[in-house]
Amino acid sequence: SHRVRNELGVESEEIDISFLWPIDDQWRVVGKWYNDLKNNRTIETLFGVEYKSCCWAISLVSRRYLDVRLDAFGNPVDIDSSQGLGNEFENSLQLDFNIILGQTSPKNTGVAKLIRNSIRNF
Q1: Contact at 8 Å (CB) between 85 and 69?
Q2: What is the pLDDT of residue 61?
Q3: For residue 50, which phi and psi values (nearest 5 degrees)?
Q4: What's the sign of the alpha-carbon dihedral 14, 33, 88, 113?
Q5: Which H helix or E strand runs over 113?
C-alpha cells in the first residue's frame, strides 16, 4: 500500500509491502517492509514462519520496528541521544506455540495477533 498523510501540517509518505504465503497445507511464511519515503528510512520489517498440524501450531517471527516515544500530551518526543530518549528501533524474536481445538486456528495468540495487527487487511 502507499499512503500520503498530512497530520498537523506535517506531510508523510509511506509504502507498505506485506505478504502471507502458504507453502503447503501446513507451512506458511509472512513478511512485511514498511518504509518512510520522506525520511528515506525503514519503519518496520517483519519475517516469520508458521507450521500448523491438526492439533497444534508453532510460529517464529523476527521483527524490527520504530518505537515512537510520546510525551505526557501524546506528542512524539524529539530524539535526544544524550538521555536515550526519543524514537528508537526495537528488535524482537517471538516464538509461539498453540494447541488447536477442533478445526479452528489460533486467532488471538502472540504471533497470530502480531501478524494480524502488522499486516493491513489481514
Answers
A1: yes
A2: 92
A3: -140, 140
A4: positive
A5: helix 110-118
